Amino acid sequence: MRTYLVTGGAGFIGSNYIHYMFKKYGDDIRIINVDKLTYAGNLENLRDVENRDNYTFVRADICDSEAINKIFDENDIDRVVHFAAESHVDRSIRNPEVFVKTNVLGTLVMLNAAKAAWELEDGTFKADKKFLHVSTDEVYGSLENEGEYFYETTPYDPHSPYSASKASSDMLVKAYMDTYKFPANITNCSNNYGPYQFPEKLIPLIINNALNGRKLPVYGDGKNVRDWLYVEDHAKGIDMVQEQGRLFETYNIGGHNEKQNIEIIHIILDTLNEMLPDEDPRKAHINEELITYVEDRKGHDRRYAIAPDKIKAEIGWYPETMFAEGIKKTIKWYFEHEDWMANVTSGDYQKYYEEMYRK
């Protein structure tokens, strides 16, 4: 049975990846989920799998080398999928130090632990051990012109403390691959959306605010463009890269769903009105009057767009979920999990787990 060590598995993308992997492989794999349970980590995301015999949760900080080395010492880890990261740009502007510590030092700790566990006396590595570092398209900076795209060869040009910290972590992984021939890959993805996304991110924020009649904040003129990737498509891409990709390579994973932020908001409003029954009282206040333009974010990149040509040509992955379908699936999930949203927005999920881990 192959054993996966997933960091940040209680977060948005990590938890969706775990669900995807169990759906695909069932009892043929074992997953160890390591998460610090910061504000973005929520074990409610994994309630459906927490009692599986082949799933283990370990509360630990990836910057804690003693804790991470212990996991490798006590388990024969075959795959590392490294999601754990501070990821919200606004928070990085307010507190860059946390991002540098988690994203850079934490990645270094993970690399060193895996290297120590997998390296043989002659400097080569045990067969069939692989490390996958999950990164972002934001490391490439901003695209100014229509028709331009990010490729794996695009020079890094990060503009926020968040993207700079992720670029630094990518460089560490690249250095380990080049220096030690460490068995790893890097993936750089576009903006994800789907179930379990923390509600300070654009799409769940707009869904939640619209349903509750609150203002819908839009940075600047609302015309910043992002490429949107349904999270399950991303999970599938990660698995395919780790099993079929060439070692030491970077693969960009993009959704072919470029949209302006203001377009996203209009689509969500239209979809909510389409999906809500006429008798639902919330329908009365879901309209464009909620849209409120606010001061633009500092260093706000204008446009991101990934060309996933390499992953499609070499591995056969492509985004299966177009935005019109994905946003309906996402909104339907939030309709069916309003208790989850209430627990997250109130902070009750954190209180529960803090109490549980004190016992």
From TrEMBL:
Listed EC numbers: 4.2.1.46
Source organism: Hominisplanchenecus faecis
Cofactor(s), by name: NAD(+)
Native organism taxonomy: Bacteria, Bacillati, Bacillota, Clostridia, Lachnospirales
Presence of keyword Chaperone: no
Claim: NAD is one of the keywords in the record: yes
The protein's name: dTDP-glucose 4,6-dehydratase
NAD(P)-binding domain sequence ranges: 5-330
Keywords: Lyase, NAD
